[in-house]
Amino acid sequence: MYSFPAEASWRTSSYTQQQNCVEVADTPGLSAVRDTKNRDNGHLAFMSPEWHAFIDSVKS
User: How does residue 16 score in pLDDT terms, banded at 50, 70 and 90?
Assistant: First the structure.
């Protein structure tokens, strides 16, 4: 698991629908995702190329 800075700037996903959403944050080389309703439960962090490959596969 990758370490992600606590001061990261989180934004709501552009695919958000009402309250069922996730938040995404980026730092150089890393991307992270967390559940908006359960922010205290932590996040999943990925190397940016891994995250972008995932997003590209979901879009296609």
Answer: low
Residue 1: pLDDT over 60: no
How far apart are the two ends of the chain, measured CA to CA in Å? 27
Assigned domain for 33 exists? yes
**In-domain check, residue 1:** no
Asked whether residue 26 is domain-assigned, the answer is: yes
Cα–chain center distance at 41: 13
Mean pLDDT of 23-47: 88
Instruction: Count other C-beta atoms under 10 Å from residue 53's C-beta.
Output: 12
Cβ count within 10 A of residue 7: 7
* Range of the structural domain that residue 53 is part of: 11-59
